[in-house]
Design goal:
Blueprint (H helix, E strand, L loop, with lengths): L1 H28 L15 H33 L5 H31 L3 H20 L10
Amino acid sequence: MQTRNIKYLLLISLAFNLAFLGGFAYRFFFAPFPRAAIHPHEMRPPARQFFYEKRDELQVCGREFTESKKDFLKSLVAPDFQEEKALEMMRISVEKHMEMETEIGKSMIELRKKMSAEEAKRIFGQMQMHERRFERHPGRKIKNKF
């Protein structure tokens, strides 16, 4: 009776080990790799160089927007809440966000002027696909890689 139980345990253990190895093999040999959003490091050298040169300008706008957003949130948390001050901070934050988006848009237009139609289709087409994926999954967190 004991040897019979040991055989069953060995067979169960063997089945679990094979299942684990099969899952491992499937993941690394057959499962498709997830495609990340286009990132400047994945672009061709001219596009990568362009974003590298624009990095400082865009980061300044991003920092200004982040600071204005923090100031707005601080005005909401303040013990002596003043609606007028909060509305002013919100207005400033929205303006900084518009400035940041405008700079990003202008730099993308400037980049497009330097590209062929095929390069633009590849780079901006991938950005469009990324946006469509985000619309299908609005709760998904996207890491900012810039």
